[in-house]
From TrEMBL:
Coiled coil: none annotated. This is Zinc finger family protein. Pfam families: VWA, Vwaint, zf-RING_11. The keyword Metal-binding applies. Residues 266-452 form the VWFA domain. Residues 40-66 are annotated as: Disordered. Keywords: Metal-binding, Zinc, Zinc-finger. Residues 74-118 form the RING-type domain. The keyword Nucleotide-binding does not apply. One of its GO terms (molecular function) is zinc ion binding. It comes from the Eukaryota.
């Protein structure tokens, strides 16, 4: 589009240079009236005299003192448009007004519809997408913090030949095969780790996984047999390894990669930009994605898929170097909301990026966010019940088909009261990811922060737990492992649990049921041995470790029975999760009173347990969570709006033993957040600091590497 540029001048105490096309095609304008790029950028051409223009044929005017515009609100950023605010104001031909930088970002790729009334404009504002007259100024719509925009300030302006002919991001043709991912040009620390030299040796110093076992009682009479004797298997991943960098010196975090490497990530975000995301939702999503982009390291790679009625890959899987971050920020900032909700197509494109990449980082994941229901794919039914077939939303590659050898977890985020919580939970459950419920729009960035805090701290992969009976008469009964795949072999003498990835400091607890035979005059009975096999994500090497034998004291007279509080705690967790599942099933049948009664009965049973009487933190958290679920079943309206999503996010958290965002808070001090790791908490602190905007807090907004912090008490 040829354009003749004019300067619009503003008497707001701050000189801004904005570029406004007189018409959509003014190539015929006399060349004598055109200003060169250099002239436009020169401060000598910025007229600082007050200007009070009147409405013109093209709909542009600048706010004048005492005008009605000064009391209006911009419908895009929802902040006041007032005199002295330092922003040009654009009033369209339909009479709706916006900040110039907000609306120019909204229409920069050809959208000519008013965000308020959807009227089609004949003329639109335009701001050169890669040209910035103020050095270091953030892309439109991004927070103006020094820390957030450091990467933008370091980049040189684009060559002049690229300034006039910029291909809109959403109009770049997609290749038929997504094998255009950027090469894994790993930093020296990671390259050294892959070759197994000193970095790898330092990384492997100490155990990566710790195994502990707890029989339900410490002693049992040798003359009695026990059919459902419980043994708790407790696993804990190591903390992040290196801690050379003092916690107070956060400004030097980018250099931490040289001494404390972590496994780099391939991340694909699949984002809903349907019409219902317009306004505040999309603005907050852009801010949250800006936080994600700024906190990925130069070895991490990101690709963004945007979907509405169709899906589009905004850019290929590329490293978050300075240039990569700049490109990603511009791409995300270009998003405009309209159309329907085609989740299946978005996931198909996201899976395609992962499947067809030429190279692979050790960790890979998909983040899905939607605020609505899929209106294109889910229409199947089961029997006489109109039960949607949510598997239709998932590409075959995400189903976890062993023959394909490919499974990428999808961490799903349901946004607001209108999203389809059942479909989002099913997507995450099938793929091995988590489901988070974002009830309040303002916490979307915190929810993303908690998720990537985990993804950026993976220390164990492909973890498998093996169980072997030691006594010849002992047999395995059930393995209570939540959503983790488990199996008991045909001889019932051994079993396995497939755990997969563990974040730093993450813990897993599994209850194993066995039979204990009666013995004659014996001091001990050997019960089990636990073995673990896993892959180190940095060295790619497999490692194994083995626990000591689990033994049970067998006196002739056992005396007073001392119940293990660790076993009791995990029984309570599983009992609460089962009550949540039953209550949800009952509520879906329309019996909200019955569902609330199930939760109340579970609370009563928990209050009578050993751990509850010992004021165990997890038991208190479970009671608070069950009470919250009861309150969200007060009416059908409340249940539909938030109760279903709240229960499903809780079930996801307990079944995977991994933190999820629930309701309107991800606060680590909340009793509900029982599975947050120090890395998640650290990232949450960074997120909340960027929202506070204090200079000391802004120093936190640097890429997160490996920050040591002490785990919270269980």
């Amino acid at each position: 589009m040829g354009s003749k540029w004019r300067k619009a001048k503003l008497a707001l105490g701050l000189n801004l240079c904005v570029y406004v096309p007189r018409t959509l095609d003014d190539s015929a304008a006399p060349s004598s009236e055109r200003l060169s790029d250099a002239a436009l950028l020169s401060p000598t051409n910025w007229d600082s005299r007050p200007m009070t223009p009147t409405p013109s044929s093209n709909g542009l005017r600048l706010a004048k003192s005492g005008s009605k515009t000064s009391k209006q609100t911009c419908s895009i950023c929802l902040t006041k448009m007032k005199q002295g605010g330092g922003h040009a104001i654009f009033t369209a031909e339909c009479s709706h007004s916006f900040h110039f930088h907000c609306i120019s970002s909204n229409v920069k790729h050809g959208n000519q519809l008013c965000p308020v009334c959807r009227a089609k404009w004949k003329e639109i504002p335009f701001q050169a997408p890669t040209l910035d007259p103020q050095p270091g100024r953030a892309p439109v719509g991004w927070p103006q913090t020094d820390a957030m925009m450091t990467v933008v300030r370091r980049l040189p302006p684009p060559p002049r030949r690229d300034r006039r002919h910029v291909v809109p991001l959403l109009q770049v043709p997609e290749p038929s095969v997504f094998n255009d991912d950027e090469s894994l040009d790993l930093q020296p620390a990671f390259a050294e780790g892959s070759s197994g030299n000193k970095m790898a040796a330092g990384h492997n110093a100490g155990k990566t996984v710790e195994i502990k076992t707890y029989p339900e009682v410490s002693a049992a009479s040798c003359f009695n047999s026990y059919d459902n004797f419980t043994v708790l298997v407790h696993l804990k991943a190591a903390a992040t390894v290196a801690r050379e960098n003092p916690r107070g010196n956060l400004a030097s975090l980018p250099q931490l990669s040289q001494t404390s490497p972590r496994a780099p990530v391939d991340l694909v975000t699949v984002l809903d930009i349907s019409g219902s995301m317009a306004g505040t939702k999309l603005a907050l999503l852009k801010r949250a994605m800006g936080f994600v982009i700024q906190n990925l390291g130069s070895n991490d790679r990101l690709s963004v898929i945007a979907f509405s009625s169709t899906a589009r890959r905004l850019f290929s899987l590329r490293r978050m170097s300075d240039a990569g971050r700049q490109h990603a920020l511009q791409a995300v900032n270009s998003l405009v909301a309209n159309g329907g909700t085609n989740i299946a197509e978005g996931l198909r494109k996201g899976a395609k990026v992962m499947e067809e990449r030429r190279e692979k980082n050790p960790v890979a994941s998909i983040i899905l966010l939607s605020d609505g229901q899929d209106t294109y794919t889910v229409s199947g039914s089961i029997g006489n019940q109109p039960q949607p077939n949510y598997q239709l939303l998932l590409p075959l590659s995400i189903h976890g088909d062993d023959s394909a050898g490919f499974q990428i977890p999808v961490h799903a985020f349901g946004f607001g009261a209108d999203h389809d919580a059942s479909s989002m939970h099913s997507i995450s459950e099938i793929s091995g990811g988590t489901f988070s419920f974002i009830e309040t729009e303002a916490v979307i960035q915190d929810a993303f922060a908690q998720c990537i805090g985990g993804l950026l701290s993976v220390v164990v992969q492909e973890l498998q737990v093996g169980l072997e009976c030691m006594h010849p008469s002992i047999r395995l009964g059930s393995l209570k492992a939540g959503s983790y795949p488990s199996r008991v072999m045909a001889d019932t003498r051994s079993g396995f649990i497939d755990v997969g990835d563990l974040y730093a400091d993450e813990e897993r607890d599994f209850l194993v049921s066995i039979n204990v035979p009666a013995e004659s005059s014996i001091n001990q009975t050997s019960l089990l041995r636990v073995r673990c096999a896993y892959r180190d994500p940095l060295t790619k090497e497999m490692a194994t470790l083995e626990s000591e034998e689990v033994k049970l004291e067998r006196p002739e007279i056992s005396g007073e029975v001392v119940v293990s509080i660790e076993v009791d705690r995990q029984r309570n967790r599983l009992q609460a999760a089962e009550a949540m599942s039953q209550a949800r099933t009952t509520a879906e049948r329309g019996d909200l009173a019955g569902a609330a009664s199930i939760l109340e009965n579970c609370r009563r049973l928990l209050s009578e347990t050993v751990s509850a009487k010992s004021h165990d933190r997890l038991c208190i958290a479970l009671d608070a969570e069950l009470k919250e679920m009861q309150e969200r079943m007060a009416s059908r309206h409340v249940y539909e709006a938030s109760g279903r999503a709240y229960i499903l996010s809780g079930l996801s958290s307990h079944s995977w033993q991994r933190a999820t965002a629930r309701g309107d808070s991800t606060d680590g001090s909340s009793l509900v957040q029982s599975y947050q790791t120090p890395s998640m908490t650290e990232m949450l602190t960074r997120s909340q600091a960027t929202l506070l905007g204090s200079p000391s807090a802004q120093r936190l907004v640097q890429p997160l590497w490996s920050i040591g912090s002490q785990p919270k008490p269980r």
